[in-house]
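Exercise 3.2. Students should predict the tertiary structure of the chain below and write it as structure tokens, then compare their answer with the key that follows.

Predict this chain's 3D structure.
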Amino acid sequence: MQQNIMRAIDAYVENPNKASWSDWQLFQHHGEKGIKRALCLKYYLITAQTAQTDSFWQILDDFSDRSIKASFLYQIDTANGVHNPRECLSHSDLKLMGLPWGKNLSLMVFYNRQADLLNGGNLNPSSLRSYIKKVCETSRYVPQTIRRQQSTSMSRYGFLFDRVDCPFDLDEPSIAVSVKELKLKKTSNESAHTIRVYSNRFDDKTLYFSKDLNQRNRLAELRNYAVEIMYANLWQWFLGKRISSSMLRLDENGRVSGISSKGLPYFIEFASVTTEQALWHKGLVSIIFYSYLLMENDLHTKNIGLTIQYDDEASKGIVVFGKIDHDYIASNWGVGGKNFTDQFPLNKIKLVISVPEARTFQQLFAHFRFSPGTENSFWINLAHALRTKPGTSRNRLQASVFLTGLVQRHYQRELKKTVEHFIKKSKTLYKLDRHMKGILQSLKMHNVPTDKAEEVYQVLFNRIRSVAR
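Answer key:
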């Protein structure tokens, strides 16, 4: 528990979104003074740990209530044999923590200024108090009965990922669906493309979201179809049925007439779920991890959401995060994919694999066009509003809530399980390569050109292999 609190402070200090006077939403982010407050608090928590007293928890209680007293800080130091901290800390350390260090300064003034610093700050979602509160809510300050229920529901992670030794449906991947199997339910114009919503003729709950093939630009669209189908299958190799399937839509004569995405069971968009509610469900950390690895730059709040995943061990369905819509990389792929690879440098995710902690994981968000952990620019929000897609992005408040939620214990456990899962999967890359080449060969049988898909796949495969090393 104490270690998790220290990690929460480190995550706060290393949060890439810092306040600046040019930011009109300054009140939502900590700046230099917030960093000094965090370092000062960490110093006293470490000192309290060394003294082996109950003062560690009292510091947290008083910090939460903004009631830290100068005399209490002095007691912590003296209990650890420090009678004059200015003699134990260098001038640079004291200045870094924002503490006075003048030789003629009395100890009373010294400790009063430290107490004032620690009692400052606010309660916004991005504040230091919020970071620490998230840790405490999932451990020390949660009633025992709730903790017991949480530990049971949060202890299993295997069902989040596809089985390492035998990914689902790999022997006979479904890359096409015929209109003979479908029944048209409605037509929607809410996105950039007209979407036809079908249901399975024999299962009304299974939905397919379909786009028509543009005959004027037939070859280019078919190439993009191949990329999207390949990309969806690549995602499914890692995360299984939490990822929607993309497949060719065939007309009654067996010719390609469009592309369809098979909907996830009971899918609820992230846009329709509060950030606080979302933080209590599994699966979001692993989706963000693989979004960075696979360079998914369309991770907005209508492309990720909650779905039902069956847990064999629990013999019931579990609400988890899933992902839909895999066409962005196909539509925006540049020559050699340089416009993607430059935006998602491998050193960031290699660091996460080496040190799977919130402080390293949150560094990934700076590279997403938008995600649960990044606020979106005015221009992105305006563009989505003009395309009648309101609510696809997160504002700064929601992003802050998400980032502070990363210090919760079950999110940290999921991050470690995700890294372990990737390492296991990376040992069977030859199976992945064989499977994906089989997908591309099947597409060729439908007269779909696969040259672009092969290029995208090779870049992604080399990227996965490089990280695995």
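Discussion points: The first helix runs from residue 2 to 13. The CA atoms of residues 1 and 74 lie 25 Å apart.
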